Amino acid sequence: MPVSSAPTSASSCSARGDEVICVDNFFTGTRRNVEHLLGHPRFELMRHDVCFPLYLEVDEIWNFACPASPVHYQHDPVQTTKTSVHGAINMLGLAKRVGAKILQASTSEVYGDPQVHPQPEDYWGHVNPNGIRSCYDEGKRCAETLFFDYHRQHRLRIKVMRIFNTYGPRMHPNDGRVVSNFIVQALKGEAITLYGSGQQTRSFQYVDDLIRGCMKLMGTADDVVGPVNIGNPVELTVRELAEAVLRLTGSRSELVYRPLPHDDPMQRCPDITRARRLLDWEPRIQLEEGLGETIAYFESLLGLRSPRSMALAARTAVPAVAPTAAAPVPATVPPAVAQRSLPEAVCAPAVTTLENEAGVAA
Q1: What local confidence, expressed as pLDDT, does residue 342 receive?
Q2: pLDDT digit string (tens) for 84-106?
Q3: What is the phi-psi region of residue 167: left when phi exceeds 0, alpha when psi lies from -120 to 50, beta otherwise?
Q4: Cα 78 from chain centroid?
Q5: Distances, alpha carbon 234 to alpha carbons 5, 171, 265, in Å
Q6: Pairing of strands 201-203, 235-237
Q7: With the CA atoms of 72, 77, 79 and 80 taken in that order, what torsion angle do they form, in degrees rounded to the nearest 10?
Q8: Which candidate in 73, 111, 136, 167 is catalytic?
Q9: Which of 80, 189, 286, 358 is 20 to 30 A off residue 50, Cα-Cα?
Q10: 167 catalytic, yes or no?
Q11: What's the Cα-to-Cα distance from 269 to each of 180, 215, 341, rounded to whole Å?
């Protein structure tokens, strides 16, 4: 039975047949993200802060707990550090008590503003220990230290993955991340905000690829502990991302430039050689496909339609047809036989199973 603080992994594990306890304090998440799982017999939702001990009987722990966007983790930097450090101690303590295997969702932020490009796992990073991003960067670095010390000292079965920029449906519309920012601004017809020159580079992976990487890493032998980079090695500038969002939405929003935030990295791209070798993993979802799914999600969430969606709907609309009188049923044919002669698909209700819904990116 995995215990997970991430709705996406909870969906995937439930669909796989696992019993899942999802732990969340809802500081950045919402119950809406797991509504499709609340009636599932193998799923349980618990409101809890991992800064406090947790007593459960589980086989696996997936520790995703911590605000990950600058807007959220800088809101209460002391609590952010506590979530990474105290949360890791409590989850490691739980794993030690029950003998569970445990996954740490670490981050590309452990590399800081890197001087090595792309970033391999053996690069120690270039991190400011006392800047405004340090609560997140150094908190995650300390959590990795704790995981490896518990592994060496207590023979705990650990898996450490370093997640690079990830996007997809169920992102928070106001979390300040570049993908959600650009999409929401484009849908609202607002100016798209770029910081600095827009030439800083990022790589973006779709959430389905990330979860596939998580599950592959957790399925490896005990001697595979990581860290393992999970990210998309295809790099593009922030301006190129903005232009892709404008193209896919058909928005006429203008690009505006603002000063670059302090300690914002100029480049970020994973070396995924280790993931390819150990996990036989690499991302599959192309940027335009993933952005299309994410744009559709935000259109539904915000009740907005992009110019491109409206144009597509107009082109594919079925023209109204004047109703015609139904042909009379011959008197020689019994009414029951005439009714049964209709195709069953016309009369059958649509059925959506929870397992199908669990496969949708969260």
Answers
A1: 28
A2: 999 999 999 999 999 999 999 99
A3: beta
A4: 24
A5: 28, 21, 17
A6: antiparallel
A7: 60
A8: 136
A9: 358
A10: no
A11: 19, 22, 60
